[in-house]
């Protein structure tokens, strides 16, 4: 049991004594592997930022992107599609190797020119516009895009293009001069980065240990050691916090918050996560082919009531598929989705809906409140005359032709509508590919303008067009941004930073401190 | 005796084979691992790519044969998530589960057998009825209720016991009691009934008539005859305990064992791990049952001496 928070010890620790500052985190989920390139899960995203760096950093204290030097100290567009980056000198990987242009080129090209299937998947959905990276000298690299790229910084700040060491990775298995699939697989169990904490132990799914990396190029890590332990049961996580077995615990549902708040030794920090819980509807199901029926299914849902009842009003109900994190691309003025039961009834009548059963499939537990929301939605449908039924299955059926409606989530993989709506609803993207969403030439054309226009206003106009299409022929209804909380000992000062993607456990300097009471 | 052991071993192998086959096909019905290992919502092109990469493009029979083949090299295949041999992953997790199982079974025997004997001897007075009432209640309370109740009282409120992990002996107390709870209740009742059967036998009267002390009569003549029934019940009960009990207990107490691994593997559809974890549990159950079978033979001279 790591009980570091003897209150009196804290002041001493901060005064720079020899006491080790250790933190134990009780996590609902611990990742099975650590590879920033292939991972885009909510479980994994917790673990990368402490141990890995991107070329372009961001001020994560701010909700909206303010980019700043990371492993690259400056970057300039030398041609319309070529970015030249000067690399930071004196950067060392956790294994002691110095970082040079070779490592950067290797890390980028493992994604841009991916041959390892899990990388290929991630490269296609967000990095498709990048051709290659090349070394100019030991501390200069150039990145070639296929087309002019309006999102350079955003896409160089991605978890997927965090920098890993070339020689170390290639040397893990087989031929030490060649990057084989098995090298990347081996890396994911013995990860090495340049961040302020080295991962010194990884028992997949069970334990992850970070220790301060003294060779870190930036401000040194405030904690000597962090142990993240898998504690799947919420009641046990909260109890572990009370018994001192954990100092910080993850994934506290809103209805558990009162337990934390009523205890003077504990506190909670939370935020409306940058991801939408959504309801998807199959545009190609025979019963739902008429868009008016799907519009009615969407208009019937009183999302504010869901928020009040399930999230104590702490979730955020969006007017469109948009988030404040998108900065200039945040478009709350779009009213893509609304609650209008009268209109729903009218549309059902116009569409000649005859009471066919509409099945809403829900995972039993995967999404917090997901099943409760499903039951409530079906009741709301009933109010407007939709004959709905909840089907609880622990199996993804989003690609099944007979899927009618179900719950899903649309995370913000990076702070741009391309990183949220864009990943899931692009032409030929996952949703269309699963056969439940259709696009045409006009949609694709608007998409191109949204994705590649260099002018923000042009991007916004194109996104508004896409949202109008979604509103007229809806495949999705974003329900809300769920409110996610962490609980901790009163002496720990930590909160999720607004500039991160969801769930990042950021323990870098300036992100965590301790009250001396 | 040798014939009995050989027959037991043969039964064990057949049972394992049936379980292996069932588990293999049952997991295949639970969804496409690509949706869970990689995440929901990928393009068909990517799905095809990953399906090939994870070797899921082969026909189900080919996969089955490959799966059986993985027993021969002793690696039991590669985890979809971790891409390392399943044997290595399970090896990390099996010991904590076995420790818990052993401590649970030991506690059960230490508590249930004396209680059962006591209840049999005092069958017609308040001691007997008190023991049986407790056993009845214990049997009726599901283990997750008992676990959460103990967590609430001994950790959350009183802060006497740690609640997560297995790092100190203190950590064993609540998980062991949770695991043993229902089993103690069941075994107490069986011990009592078995003892009552024996106590009414003629040879007990003979033993007393010979002038033996009551303790010798009860323990040597009574219990050693009742133990055959008790052992067979214990063997059956442990099966349920190891399979279902561990999953619940390990989730609640964040015990880093097979139960926890099994749940994760099921959620992620990590078939190779799931298959082998189920198999490992089945194997443990079969081994324990086999040992009990042999102990049963040893306890029963008719079997031991081959006169059955």
SSE map:
The complex is a heterodimer of chains A (517) and B (308).
Chain A: H1 7-14, E1 22-27, E2 56-58, E3 67-69, E4 72-79, E5 82-87, H2 101-112, H3 117-126, E6 130-137, E7 140-145, H4 152-156, H5 166-170, H6 181-187, E8 197-203, E9 207-212, E10 225-230, H7 234-243, E11 248-252, H8 257-261, E12 266-272, E13 275-281, H9 291-299, H10 303-311, H11 341-351, E14 358-362, H12 370-384, E15 388-392, E16 405-411, H13 421-425, H14 430-433, H15 441-452, H16 456-472, E17 476-480, E18 483-489, E19 492-494, E20 512-514
Parallel strand pairs in A: 1-10, 1-11, 14-15, 14-16
Antiparallel strand pairs in A: 2-3, 4-5, 5-7, 6-7, 8-9, 9-10, 11-18, 12-18, 13-16, 13-17, 19-20
Helix pairs in contact in A: 9-11, 15-16
Chain B: H1 2-28, H2 33-37, H3 44-53, H4 60-72, H5 86-121, H6 126-140, H7 143-157, H8 170-199, H9 202-209, H10 214-252, H11 258-268, H12 271-299, H13 301-304
CA-based shape of chain B = globular
Strand content of chain A: 15-25%
Determine the oligomeric state from the structure: heterodimer
Count of beta strands of chain B:
0
**Tally of separate domains of chain B:** 2
Mean pLDDT of chain B: 84
Q: If you compute it from the alpha carbons, what radius of gyration of chain A comes out, rounded to the nearest whole angstrom?
A: 24 Å
What's the SSE pattern of chain B? HHHHHHHHHHHHH
**What CATH architecture label of the largest domain in chain B applies?**
Orthogonal Bundle
What general form of chain A does the structure show?
globular
Distance between the termini of chain A: 23 Å
Distance between the amino and carboxyl termini of chain B = 10 Å
The CATH topology of the largest domain in chain B: MetI-like fold
| Largest beta sheet: strand ordering of chain A | 8-9-10-1-11-18-12
Helix content of chain A: 25-40%
Query: What structural class should be given to the helix and strand makeup of chain A?
Result: alpha+beta
Helix content of chain B: over 70%
What is the CATH domain class of the largest domain in chain B? Mainly Alpha
Given as residue ranges, the uncertain stretches of chain A (5+ residues, pLDDT < 50) are: 1-17
Largest β-sheet summary of chain B: none
């Amino acid at each position: 049991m790591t009980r570091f928070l003897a209150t009196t010890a804290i002041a001493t620790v901060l005064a720079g004594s020899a006491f080790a500052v250790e933190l134990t985190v009780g996590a609902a989920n611990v990742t099975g592997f650590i590879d920033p390139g292939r991972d885009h899960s909510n479980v994994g995203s917790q673990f990368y930022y402490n141990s890995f760096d991107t070329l372009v950093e961001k001020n994560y204290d701010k909700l909206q992107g303010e980019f700043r030097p990371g492993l690259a100290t400056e970057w300039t567009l030398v041609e319309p599609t070529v970015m030249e980056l000067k690399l930071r000198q004196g950067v060392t990987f956790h294994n002691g190797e110095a970082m040079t242009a070779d490592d950067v080129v290797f890390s980028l090209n493992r994604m841009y020119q991916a041959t390892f299937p899990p990388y290929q998947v991630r490269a296609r959905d967000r990095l498709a516009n990048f051709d290659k990276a090349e070394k100019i000298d030991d501390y200069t690299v150039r990145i070639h895009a296929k087309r002019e790229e309006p999102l350079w910084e955003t896409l160089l700040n991605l978890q997927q293009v965090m920098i890993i060491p070339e020689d170390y990775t290639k040397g893990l298995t087989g031929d030490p001069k060649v990057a084989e699939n098995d090298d990347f697989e081996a890396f994911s169990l013995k990860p090495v980065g340049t961040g302020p904490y080295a991962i010194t132990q990884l028992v997949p799914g069970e334990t992850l240990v970070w220790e301060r990396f003294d060779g870190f190029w930036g401000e040194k890590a405030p904690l000597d050691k962090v142990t993240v332990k898998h504690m799947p049961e919420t009641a046990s996580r909260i109890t572990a916090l009370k018994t001192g077995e954990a100092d910080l615990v993850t994934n506290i549902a809103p209805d558990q918050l009162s337990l934390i708040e009523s205890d003077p030794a504990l506190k909670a920090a939370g935020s409306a996560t940058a991801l939408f819980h959504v309801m998807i509807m199959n545009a190609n199901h025979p019963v739902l082919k008429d868009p008016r029926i799907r519009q009615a299914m969407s208009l019937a849902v009183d999302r504010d009531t869901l928020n009040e009842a399930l999230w104590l009003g702490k979730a955020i109900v969006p007017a469109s598929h948009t988030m404040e994190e998108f900065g200039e691309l945040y478009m709350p003025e779009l009213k893509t989705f609304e609650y209008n039961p009268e209109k729903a009834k009218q549309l059902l009548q116009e569409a000649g809906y005859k009471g066919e059963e509409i099945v809403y499939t829900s995972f039993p537990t995967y999404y917090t409140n997901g099943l409760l929301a499903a039951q409530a939605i079906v009741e709301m449908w009933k109010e407007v005359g939709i004959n709905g039924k909840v089907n609880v299955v622990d199996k993804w059926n989003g690609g099944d032709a007979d899927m009618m409606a179900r719950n899903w989530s649309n995370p913000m993989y990076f702070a741009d509508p391309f990183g949220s709506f864009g990943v899931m609803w692009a032409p030929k993207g996952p949703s269309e590919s699963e056969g439940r969403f259709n696009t045409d030439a006009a949609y694709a054309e608007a998409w191109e303008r949204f994705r590649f226009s260099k002018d923000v206003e042009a991007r916004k106009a194109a996104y508004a067009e896409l949202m109008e299409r979604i509103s007229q022929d809806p495949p999705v209804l974003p329900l809300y941004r769920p409110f996610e909380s962490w609980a901790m000992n009163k002496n720990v000062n930590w909160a999720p930073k607004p500039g991160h993607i969801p769930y990042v456990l950021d323990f870098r300097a300036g992100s965590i401190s301790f009250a001396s009471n | 005796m040798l014939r009995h052991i050989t027959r037991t071993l043969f039964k064990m192998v057949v049972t394992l084979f049936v379980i292996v086959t069932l588990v293999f096909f049952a997991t295949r019905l639970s969804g496409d691992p690509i949706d869970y290992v990689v995440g929901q919502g990928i393009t068909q092109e990517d799905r095809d790519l990953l399906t090939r990469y994870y070797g899921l493009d082969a026909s189900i029979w080919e996969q089955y044969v490959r799966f059986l083949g993985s027993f021969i090299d002793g690696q039991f295949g590669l985890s979809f998530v971790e891409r390392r041999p399943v044997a290595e992953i399970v090896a990390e997790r099996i010991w904590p589960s076995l420790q818990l199982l052993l401590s649970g079974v030991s506690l059960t025997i230490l508590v249930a057998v004396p209680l059962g004997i006591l209840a049999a001897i005092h069958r017609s007075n308040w001691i007997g009825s008190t023991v049986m009432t407790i056993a009845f209640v214990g049997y009726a309370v599901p283990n997750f209720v008992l676990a959460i109740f103990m967590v609430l009282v001994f950790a959350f409120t009183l802060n006497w016991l740690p609640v997560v992990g297995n790092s100190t002996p203190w950590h064993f107390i609540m998980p062991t009691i949770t695991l043993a709870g229902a089993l103690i209740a069941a075994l107490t009742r069986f011990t009592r009934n078995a003892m009552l059967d024996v106590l009414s036998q003629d040879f007990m009267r003979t033993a007393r008539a010979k002038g033996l002390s009551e303790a010798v009569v009860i323990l040597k003549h009574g219990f050693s005859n009742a133990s055959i029934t008790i052992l067979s019940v214990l063997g059956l009960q442990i099966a349920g305990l190891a399979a279902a009990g561990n999953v619940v207990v390990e989730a609640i107490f964040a015990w880093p064992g097979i139960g926890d691994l099994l749940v994760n593997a099921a959620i992620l559809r990590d078939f190779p791990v799931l298959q082998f974890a189920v198999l490992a549990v089945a194997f443990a159950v079969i081994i324990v049952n086999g040992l009990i079978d042999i102990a049963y033979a040893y306890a029963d001279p008719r079997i031991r001496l081959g006169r059955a």
